[in-house]
Amino acid sequence: MKLHDVKVYPSRDRLARQDQLAWKIAGVAVDKVAVQKDVAEMIINRVIDNAAVAIAAINRRPVVSARDMALGHPRKDGATVFGVASGKRVSPEWAAWANGTAVRELDMHDTFLAADYSHPADNIPPILAVAQAMGRSGRDLVRGIATGYEIHIDLVRAICLHEHKIDHIAHLCPAQAAGIGALLGLKQEVIYQAVQQALHVSITTRQSRKGEISSWKAYAPAHAGKLAVEAVDRAMRGEGAPSPIYEGEDSVIAWILSGRTARDKGLAEAVYTVPLPEPGEPRRAILDSYTKEHSGEYQSQALIDLAFRMREQIPDLGMIEKIVLHTSHHTHYVIGSGANDPQKMDPKASRETLDHSIMYIFAVALQDGRWHHVDSYAPKRAARKDTVELWHRIETKEDPEWTRRYHSRDPNELAFGGRVEVFLKDGTRLVDELAVANAHPLGARPFGREDYIRKFRILTDGIISAREANRFIEVVQDLPRLGAGDLHLLNVALPAGTLDAGKPGIF
């Protein structure tokens, strides 16, 4: 990997294209380096994972609305929509919208955490949609997805958006554009313009994940995918974009990120150091990401597993006086009591809010010894009196050591869990800790191909036919060898008459 320093330059300096981050990102996208076998195998795993969580959410209201909107934009040679028979196609940007929403709705697909947050599998829906609409092969798709993951994760390693309350889709959209460019084999100039346009239009605030969290949490990455498809389309037609989008005098770094902070505080200019592969270096970033076994914010994964373990040490949960979760800055301030969101303690809160409340999640996991993507968030479950009482006895505290480990570059130190203290009414104190979830690559039970397939079968059971499930599992495992025009086979359809319809809109 080569490290690239990125900072603001006055307009009079006329920063050369080859020195701009967007041009360097485009350079990675045009590099024809082969996708290594273990990377291709992991891409297959994540395509399976995306399909699993999408079908599990297929008739939830946000997904229904997104699907109905997409179906208002039919295109004979377009892309498929999850749940809908593959013979019915839509324009690719709308397929990206519908499928991206379905994938994101349950908050149960993959994650990468570093300087910022990310769900890099959000790259897959728009890249797949364009691949289907443009008649590309499985090999082309694998190249595009590997590129999208690489750019997305490299940006997340280096640039913190959360510090400035900017939503994480600002890293996703440029990565999606780069992935689409790699898929289509576009020229560096075209991808460069698409990446800049994608970043420019995807700057939004983190209010989407604060306070009363709405369905937009699922829509936001899908919206980024739609914007990315449109950005590439414009660039392919010869249109340009604001430039240089990262380094310019009025750029994203200058006014949205740390450029402005440095100026306001009279500090030295802000510099971000972004790692990108050297020419000819394989794109392996996907192997640094990790999926979820449980439906909830990633920082909750290890703590759910820890709750399962600790409940065996507490014969009577009614004896709990209070619980303190000592954890990282991100966990404390995003899904913990440090967020100061009263909604995180509200039994009537939305599902989207509850899956960002580690206090609620830990209480239910401790009581039930299981986690279910539907049952654990049901309104009746959230309102149970003993759950509310336990939930309100839980708080989080930032621990500098867990924060340090959260940001560690050493994979053996990297941690997303915490240390839990349970105080009982008789004065007993129980303490346990877990650094990474059981499903993490360094966890007790790292996810492999059989786990992804099992997750798919569990989440789609009773929703699709066994025949459709078997067909998809067989086809997807042969992904790199699928021919041009065969990528519609990666769609998963429900039996006729089982897809819900939502309220009418404009489309």
Automatic annotation (TrEMBL):
<dbReference type="Pfam" id="PF03972">
    <property type="entry name" value="MmgE_PrpD_N"/>
</dbReference>
<keyword id="KW-0456">Lyase</keyword>
<feature type="domain" description="MmgE/PrpD C-terminal">
    <location>
        <begin position="294"/>
        <end position="479"/>
    </location>
</feature>
<dbReference type="InterPro" id="IPR042183">
    <property type="entry name" value="MmgE/PrpD_sf_1"/>
</dbReference>
<protein>
    <submittedName>
        <fullName>MmgE/PrpD family protein</fullName>
    </submittedName>
</protein>
<comment type="subunit">
    <text>Monomer.</text>
</comment>
<comment type="similarity">
    <text>Belongs to the PrpD family.</text>
</comment>
<dbReference type="InterPro" id="IPR005656">
    <property type="entry name" value="MmgE_PrpD"/>
</dbReference>
<dbReference type="GO" id="GO:0016829">
    <property type="term" value="F:lyase activity"/>
</dbReference>
<dbReference type="InterPro" id="IPR042188">
    <property type="entry name" value="MmgE/PrpD_sf_2"/>
</dbReference>
<dbReference type="InterPro" id="IPR036148">
    <property type="entry name" value="MmgE/PrpD_sf"/>
</dbReference>
<dbReference type="Pfam" id="PF19305">
    <property type="entry name" value="MmgE_PrpD_C"/>
</dbReference>
<dbReference type="InterPro" id="IPR045337">
    <property type="entry name" value="MmgE_PrpD_C"/>
</dbReference>
<dbReference type="InterPro" id="IPR045336">
    <property type="entry name" value="MmgE_PrpD_N"/>
</dbReference>
<feature type="domain" description="MmgE/PrpD N-terminal">
    <location>
        <begin position="20"/>
        <end position="262"/>
    </location>
</feature>
